[in-house]
Amino acid sequence: MSELGVLWALIRSTWGERLSRPLIGILAVVFCASKVSLAIYTHELDAPSLFLTLMFAAGSVGRDVTSGVLPLIFTRPVARRTYVLAKWIAAGAAAGAVSALTLVVQALLLWHRGAPVPGSEISAAIFAAFTSAFGIASVIVLLSVLVPGIGDMALWAALLLIGSLSAKVAPQRFVQEWHAFLEPTLEWGAASGTNLAGWFRVVSYLSTVTLCLCLAVMAANRKEISYAAG
Questions:
Q1: Is 118 within a domain?
Q2: What local confidence, expressed as pLDDT, does residue 194 receive?
């Protein structure tokens, strides 16, 4: 099987594993429904991409280590970079797609209630939802390579808390960059702009995602995998 075929097989198996957990589906439906209700009340589109990405990406690698699945995967000709990329794509695509569907439902209901949302605003919201999903997924996958189980969620929350607490002593610029690293996203206005500030945001987003994935691959390559892991 080609590397692309292996990548797609890993993505599908990751989706299947997530869908096999009823709690994930229930939480996703409940949270998306609450976002739809809130959008109807405020007349503003609101994507659930952050929550969905955390839910879909949590323990993406750590669970495989703890359960002993990872050694079985690597007994086959699977490159570790392919495994890491598959986890990232699976989480980002799932969270982005469900977020986009939620935004479309919000827009349709607002249109039905006489408060139509411009198509450009819907497109921009969907773009931001996908970039947020893939950006945050890259950070969570990196953390998931480093810690077993769903410890990546605790580590991500701790890092976010550190950034918030440092606001009292650190420069505001540092706090903003810290949060931008933990929650990378890209607005359509910045991506389509031609000024220097717009290009800086695009480069910052892409560099953050690339750095996280490269570090995740490096950590995975150095990770000792055994049947007793976790």
A1: yes
A2: 61
